[in-house]
UniProtKB/TrEMBL annotation, chain A:
This is Metallophosphoesterase. Residues 54-247 form the Calcineurin-like phosphoesterase domain. It comes from the Bacteria. One of its GO terms (molecular function) is hydrolase activity. The lineage of its organism: Bacteria, Pseudomonadati, Pseudomonadota, Alphaproteobacteria, Acetobacterales. Signal peptide: none annotated.
TrEMBL record, chain B:
GO terms for molecular function: copper ion binding; electron transfer activity. Cu cation binds at residues 60, 96, 99, 105. It is found in: Periplasm. It holds the Pfam family Cupredoxin_1. This is Cupredoxin family copper-binding protein. It comes from Limobrevibacterium gyesilva. One of its GO terms (cellular component) is periplasmic space. Residues 14-108 form the EfeO-type cupredoxin-like domain. Its main location: periplasm. Keywords: Copper, Electron transport, Metal-binding, Periplasm, Signal, Transport. InterPro entries: Amicyanin, Amicyanin/Pseudoazurin, Cupredoxin, EfeO_Cupredoxin, ET_Amicyanin. Its cofactor is Cu cation. Binds 1 copper ion per subunit. It comes from the Bacteria.
Length: 314, 109
């Protein structure tokens, strides 16, 4: 796992990605030589190589949800934030569904808990965040540090330590029978945005709904996601971070690595394993461990692999 | 179809649903459960009031499939309801604004 990995072909990158680690509510990514690598939440030493740069992903906090299996989503979000904070990442990406019903009180609570990290946090909206006034309350509160890709658009990009981060919105203007949607204006902006970057720039794209089709029957995909991915194809290192499905999924296609993070609120069933994608019921006492334990990725025989247990589990 | 004028006579606020439903013979119920409108296809005579009730533990919406939508509910949390009277014969497709793969249809005769 040295710096040469980035410049080699997809096979090596695939090899790297089999080593990826997963944590229940946050994935710590460390970039060494342009390749994002995951690390163990709560184990800062392991995650941050010298000269590296780490960041965290938090997703689907659903503040306002207070039903089985989680009647205290602020508490589980606070626990996730505390653990991320212990890692001291340079930044946090929140991949949406900050709130459950876009209510001001929910945004207040979420902002307070996430703000307590003291770590710069970048947000993209989930469909639960955009229910009022076309999403303006979410955009104005959570994306105010960014200049939107278009006026009123909940998408933007920024650069940090050599990485180009692109936050996309695929949760508005949804069409009957469809999946997530980026739309023409956003795709045109993305094309312009990426045009200015060299092929060797590591790209991290983050958006709520998976950009790849995880399970169309449950709406787990983005109708025009492939068009965004076509624009990303020429880059040597692309990492796509999503939420929405409240479980870990990963896929590698060429130089593009796709990952979904878990929720800090409740788990959802694996595709097709339940009548619908609603919250999975678990006993209250087991919630945190189930959130963390259900999707640990383990590849035996790799000395450079660390196994992640649930960071929220007791 | 896409150019259909707005044919719907009334958007009944959810608050109005505190009226006893059983007393209204013309009401037709659609339940939202397991990310499904049930029944997904309802055929009613003109003047019928349709009531959608969300029995899921996740919020949903009822949104006309026309663009722009001919009708649209507020977000419906668990046990919230949305009602609308269909006065004009026709076919009305709708979906969930949060989960657009959820679709239903109302046929008014
Ligand atoms: Cu829905």
């Amino acid at each position: 796992m040295d710096d040469t990995t980035r410049t080699t072909n997809g096979t090596d990158r695939r090899g790297l990605l089999t080593c990826m680690l997963w944590a229940g509510t946050g994935v710590i990514w460390t970039v060494a030589g342009g390749i994002p690598r995951s690390g163990l939440l709560g184990s800062a030493q392991a995650a941050t190589p010298s000269g590296g740069f780490s960041f965290a992903q938090i997703s689907d906090s659903h503040i306002g949800f207070a039903r089985d299996p989680n009647t205290d989503t602020p508490a589980t979000l606070a626990a996730a934030v505390a653990q991320v904070k212990a890692m001291a990442p340079a930044l946090i990406l929140h991949t949406g569904d900050v709130s459950h019903l876009s209510r001001p009180a929910e945004f207040d609570t979420a902002e307070k808990i996430l703000g307590a990290s003291g770590i710069e946090t970048h947000y993209v909206p989930g469909e639960h965040d955009m229910l009022e006034d076309g999403g303006t309350p979410f955009i104005e509160r959570f994306q105010k540090r960014h200049t939107p890709g278009q006026p009123g658009g909940a998408f933007y990009s920024f650069d940090q330590q050599g990485i180009h981060f692109v936050g996309l919105n695929n949760v508005t203007d949804l069409k009957a029978g469809g999946l997530g949607n980026l739309g023409e204006a956003q795709l045109a902006w993305l094309e312009r945005d990426l045009k200015q970057r060299s092929d060797s720039t590591p790209i991290v794209v983050f958006a709520h709904i998976p950009l790849w089709t995880v399970y169309a029957d449950w709406g787990w995909g983005t109708d025009d996601g492939a068009r965004a991915l076509a624009l990303l194809k020429r880059f040597g290192s692309v990492t796509v971070l999503n939420g929405h499905i409240h479980q870990v999924m990963q896929k590698v296609e060429g130089n593009v690595a796709f990952h979904t993070a878990r929720s800090t609120a409740f788990p959802q069933p694996a595709p097709g394993t339940a009548p619908g994608p609603g919250p999975m019921k678990v006993e209250a006492g087991r919630l945190r461990s189930v959130l963390g334990v259900a999707s640990i990725a383990y590849v035996p025989g790799r000395s450079d692999l660390a196994i992640v247990d649930s960071p929220l589990g007791a | 179809m896409q150019r259909r004028a707005l044919l719907l006579s009334a958007l009944v606020p959810v608050a109005a649903l505190s009226l006893p439903r059983a007393a209204r013979a013309a009401d037709t119920e659609v339940t939202i459960d397991n990310f499904t409108f049930s029944p997904a296809l309802v055929t009613v005579s003109a003047g019928t009031r349709l009531i959608w009730t969300n029995r899921d533990d996740i919020p949903h919406m009822v949104v006309s499939a026309l663009r722009p939508p001919a009708f649209k509910s507020k977000v419906l949390d668990t046990d919230d309801a949305f009602a609308m009277v269909f006065d004009t014969p026709g076919t009305y497709s709708y979906f969930c604004g949060l989960h657009p793969h959820m679709q239903g249809m109302v046929v008014v005769t």
